[in-house]
Design a protein that fits this description.
By secondary structure, the protein is mostly helical. Helix content is 82%, strand content 0%.
């Protein structure tokens, strides 16, 4: 019995060591929030209403998924090239598609940087710079969402503009202070400093150096394709709401989507799933939309938008990975 108990304790210890709580906890919070929104949207007629939404909008969502993904990969490629990271088209597609598949999970979008590092055998410096490019995409999305939220606002939520300004201001102050602290630590770093702290400071310094390189006019040109793929999501949400019997002006739908984007990016909870839905639910209810209809709309956006994106990304990933494997095999055979 003691041997069995010892083996169980060993297995449990290994299991805990393999679990990353920084991923598990946000994922559980997101799934719990999503389940709550789903609970609010359930009614006797919800299945029929959802079938109506799917029947009226699936073709539009699927059709617009291609320009949505196309605009996103163009932005990421340009940001990578600005930071001196050049990859082949197939490697770019494999890495990008992998990130799109896992984007809704905690820090899932950064899977594309992991895949890029494995395929390109990037150095630590290059990996940090590729991660900066991915983070810059979130920054561009935030910039556009902030502008929309401040200009359009949200009726019934007069304090929204002040909250947005407050959160953005707080982030700016934190980043400036962190940048100043890192610069000071780099200048005053001594050999006696613990190796892990030296690596952390060095990685942070590389990140901020990459950010400084992206503070140029060429980066701002990427606001155009960023606006395109964000607008596609607004079109999806508008179509779903119309199919759900919710009729708002297109500008109001834009303001709702802007609030959803800001909640995911600016609130320090590293998960998209669940946070998007609860924020969209609150925004629609503030506009006077009944809770069940609002919940069904945001859940339909999750299922249709994310489902279509994941489906197309998986197909692109499989095709590009197969072609890349064939290409590498041909190169190995020619070299041999």
């Amino acid at each position: 019995m003691s041997d069995a108990g010892g083996q169980n304790r060993t297995r449990w210890r290994r299991f805990r060591e393999r679990i990353d709580l920084s991923i598990v906890i946000p994922l559980l919070v997101g799934l719990g929030t999503l389940a709550y929104v789903a609970y609010l949207g359930v009614s006797r007629h919800s299945s029929a209403e959802f079938a109506t939404i799917v029947g009226e909008t699936w073709w539009l969502v699927l059709l617009l998924t291609f320009p949505y993904l196309g605009a996103r990969i163009l932005v990421w490629r340009d940001l990578l090239e600005q930071l001196g990271i050049h990859v082949t088209p197939r490697q770019l597609i494999v890495a990008f598609a992998g990130g799109e598949v896992t984007k809704s999970l905690p820090a899932g979008v950064y899977v594309q940087n992991y895949l890029l590092e494995r395929m390109q055998h990037l150095s630590l410096r290059a990996t940090i710079r590729s991660t900066t490019a991915t983070t810059a995409m979130l920054g561009l999305e935030s910039l556009l969402a902030v502008v929309v939220a401040l200009v359009l606002g949200l009726p019934g939520v007069p304090w929204l503009r002040w909250v947005v300004l407050g959160i953005v201001g707080a982030w700016v102050v934190v980043l400036i202070l962190l940048w100043a602290l890192i610069n000071w630590r780099v200048e005053h770093m001594t050999p006696r400093l613990a190796p892990w702290r030296q690596k952390l400071i060095g990685a942070s310094d590389q990140f901020f150096m990459a950010v400084e390189e992206l503070l140029r006019l060429r980066t701002l040109w990427n606001l155009a394709p960023t606006a395109v793929y964000m607008l596609i999501y607004v079109i999806w949400l508008d179509a779903i709401m119309n199919a759900d019997g919710i009729h708002l002006s297109f500008l109001r739908v834009m303001s709702v989507y802007a609030v959803m984007v800001l909640a995911v990016i600016l609130v320090p909870i590293p998960t998209e799933i669940g946070i998007t839905e609860i924020t969209g639910l609150g925004a629609l209810m503030a506009l006077g939309i009944p809770r069940p209809a609002a919940a069904l709309a945001v859940l339909s956006l999750r299922l249709l938008g994310t489902g279509s994106t994941v489906l197309i990304a998986l197909i692109a990933l499989a095709v590009a990975a197969r072609q890349l494997q064939t290409e590498q095999s041909d190169e190995a055979a020619a070299a041999g």
